Amino acid sequence: MKAGMIGLGAMGAGMAGNLAKAGFLAAIYNRTMEKAETLAKELNVAVFDRIEALAAEVDVVLLCVSADGDVLAVVEAIAQTIKPGSIVVDMSTVSSDTARHAAAILAEKRVSFLDAPVSGGVEGAKNGTLAMMVGGDEDALEKVRPILQAMSARIIHMGITGSGQAAKAVNQVMCAGINQAVTEALAFAQAQQLPMEKLIDAVSGGAAGNWFLQHRGNTMTNNKFAPGFKLALHHKDLKICRAMAEKAQIPLPLTDMTIGDYERLITAGYGDEDISALYRLKKQLFDNS
Ligand code: NAP
């Protein structure tokens, strides 16, 4: 099976590297062409300047782009040329509605679609250790599982189309709470003038230990907020979660609070920083301590 990858951003570049290493990657495309050209040389794969041209050449198209409108635009382009019987796997984080819409566009071409959002950050993408939540046809998943295993340590079939994205929404609500707790607690620690590296090391080994603390604790407390996961992207995800909750008439207070905090940071020009930039606001809470 020949695979093509569309979207070579913070996540997609690492994913492409692992697909190439496992021998699956035949072709890549990126909207900003220079990124694709550089990576194509490094990975020794073909580079295309049009999505339609890539889609005609491979059996499996994988994509990891930014938001709902981007996924649908890419899927429309793929649908122009893709061969019947092919499989499209979307690893972006978007709404379940978008997943269903994309699946319907491709079903008309007799192409299967899997929504397969991931968790594990840029480190997981680079190391091939992502957790993947998949919605869609189980037979299609089994066909592409060896390809997905090149990028993921865990691949879980959640159910029908859209259920992968629904599972990812749960993950993002959890990440909002973890971000709130870790940034606030570390600002509290700094206000007490504790030795931060030692504190993070100690707490990481106990019941409060978690991925975000381990991977972002030392950078945020040194005022480094390079992405990682862009704050503007998590904001986009949380708005999806809020819309889902509103539909089900369920309140999501922690999500609402985090959306508000992110909007303040985006307005201040920090939208392209890592989500750990929430620490900037938490530090202000202790300014007078
Ligand atoms: P990113 O670094 O901003 O990269 C986005 C990629 O999508 C770039 O390659 C961009 O092309 C491409 N793109 C955007 N709109 C496009 C369009 N309309 N047509 C074609 N290509 C388009 O973002 P990322 O961090 O890799 O995240 C990608 C997706 O994964 C998002 O849905 C995000 O929520 C999700 N995600 C991210 C993380 C994380 O830790 N970063 C973790 C899990 C899931 P250009 O290079 O031309 O801009």
List the helices and strands and how they pair.
Layout: E1 3-6, H1 10-21, E2 25-29, H2 33-43, E3 46-47, H3 51-57, E4 60-63, H4 68-81, E5 87-90, H5 96-107, E6 112-115, E7 118-119, H6 121-127, E8 130-135, H7 138-149, E9 152-159, H8 163-191, H9 196-204, H10 211-221, H11 231-247, H12 253-267, H13 278-285
Helix pairs in contact: 1-6, 3-4, 4-5, 8-10, 8-11, 8-13, 9-10, 11-12
The structure holds NADP nicotinamide-adenine-dinucleotide phosphate.
Residues 7-12, 30-32, 35, 64-66, 70, 73-74, 92-93, 118-119, 121-122, 228-230, 233, 237 line the site of NADP nicotinamide-adenine-dinucleotide phosphate.
Descriptive report:
The chain is of the alpha/beta class and 289 residues long. It folds into two domains: 3-160, NAD(P)-binding Rossmann-like Domain (Rossmann fold, 3-Layer(aba) Sandwich); 166-287, Orthogonal Bundle (N-(1-d-carboxylethyl)-l-norvaline Dehydrogenase, domain 2). Helix content is 57%, strand content 13%. It has a six-stranded parallel sheet, sandwiched between helices. Strands 7-8-9 form a three-stranded mixed sheet. Strand 4, helix 4 (68-81) and strand 5 (87-90) form a beta-alpha-beta unit. Helix 1 (10-21) runs parallel beside helix 6 (121-127), helix 8 packs across helix 11 and helix 8 (163-191) runs parallel beside helix 13. The longest helix has 29 residues, at 163-191. The protein is globular and about 65 Å long. 45% of the residues are buried. The structure holds NADP nicotinamide-adenine-dinucleotide phosphate.
